[in-house]
Amino acid sequence: MSRRHVAFECEGSALVGTLDEAAGTTGLLIVSGGNEIRAGAWNGQALLAARIAAAGHPVFRFDRRGVGDSGGGNGGFRNSAADITAALTAFRAAASKTTRVVAFGNCDAASALILAGGAGCDGLVLSNPWTIDESGSAPPPPAALRSHYLARLKDPRALLRLLKGKVGLGKLLGSLRDAARPAPPPGSLAQEMATGLAQFSGPISILIAERDRTGQAFLAAWEKADQRVARCADATHSYVESHAQEWLFEQLRQALA
Question: Terminus of the chain with fewer CB atoms < 10 Å: N or C?
Answer without folding.
Answer: C
